[in-house]
Amino acid sequence: MGVRKRQSADNMKQARKDVAFAKLTNIPSSPRKMRLVADMIRGVEVFRALGVLKFSNKEAAVCLEKLLRSAVANWEAKNNQKAESGMLRVSTIFVNCAPMLKRLRPAPQGRGYRIRKRANHVTVIVDTIDNAK
Fold first, then answer.
1. 74 burial via Cβ count (<10 Å: 0-12, 13-18, 19+)
2. Which residues form the domain of 102?
3. Percentages of the chain per state (helix, strand, coil), in multiples of 5
């Protein structure tokens, strides 16, 4: 590896040092329902977001709470320190569509109605608060 390429790789590693992420794939709920919950915690401090998710009555909030805890654990493992209150925030969260399951439901007069069972992928990126400024 050349010197310039190694330096740029080291710079990228340094920039990503205090950023951690977690992904959850093929969640069997529609992306629209998941985005409603994801919008509640976007840009919020992590422990406040965990509280919002814990007391939300949406089913998608349970999956997102588990995913956010995983992202925080990834950050702690990467930086060898314990996350404290007011230290981390949800810098980015996005929901993408997963492949759809297509089914047919019997309908009157020999027809069939299409049923689309949607799924989604969620990615959460956790960052330190002082980096965000």
1. middle
2. 18-132
3. 45, 30, 25
